[in-house]
Amino acid sequence: MADQLTLNVNGHDCVVTAAAETPLLYVLRNELRLSGPRYGCGLAQCGACAVLVDGTEVRSCITPAAAAAGKKLTTIEGLPSLWAQSKGTAAGSSPLHPVQQAWIDEQVPQCGYCQSGMMIAAVELLSTNPTPSVAQIKDAYTNKPPSPHLCRCGTYAAIIRAVQRASSVMKA
């Protein structure tokens, strides 16, 4: 049975029709046509589907859409607005979040499939720990439940550099 759900995605209220138990990932991609969160494993074991729900990273492939109703969802597409809001500037004043720019500057992606989830994890980490050590960055990607973030291309060293770069920019 389909329900009407109101989701606040990237600062906009969106009404969707979906069964309450439909994975949030399917609603984001199929109903709202957002391509940032990716289907990787469908079991919350890779992180490609990661989004922020009220500022906390969740794996949207196993999160029921109804669990996100009434909460603020942020996908990679919404990171620039999230950054502008945190700085008290107008939405659209910055084309990219510092994490996104750091990913470009450090040339992190190879295939890029997992990178939106990696950036979501970085944004969450930097929101709680503005100056993480290398060990803390590694820990955020490998030991935070439900499972590690995986990158088949092995860009882990570049990810660490990008998180450090974003940290420096965000402190300024």
Secondary-structure blueprint:
Blueprint: E1 3-9, E2 12-18, H1 24-31, E3 50-53, E4 56-59, H2 65-68, E5 72-74, H3 79-87, H4 98-105, H5 115-128, H6 134-142, H7 156-171
Parallel strand pairs: 1-5
Antiparallel strand pairs: 1-2, 3-4, 3-5
Helix pairs in contact: 4-7
Question: Your description of this structure?
Answer:
This protein has 172 residues and is of the alpha+beta class. It has seven helices and five strands. It has helices at residues 24-31, 65-68, 79-87, 98-105, 115-128, 134-142, 156-171; strands at 3-9, 12-18, 50-53, 56-59, 72-74. It has a five-stranded mixed β-sheet, sandwiched between helices. Helix 4 crosses helix 7 (156-171).
**Spans of 5+ residues with little confidence (pLDDT < 50)?**
none
Give the biggest sheet: 5 strands, mixed
Percentage beta strand: 5-15%
What's the N-to-C terminus distance?
50 Å
H-E string: EEHEEHEHHHHH
Shape, per Cα inertia axes: globular
How are the strands of the largest sheet arranged?
2-1-5-3-4
Q: What's the gyration radius in Å?
A: 15 Å
Keywords:
40% helix; 172 residues; alpha+beta; globular; five-stranded mixed beta sheet; 5 strands
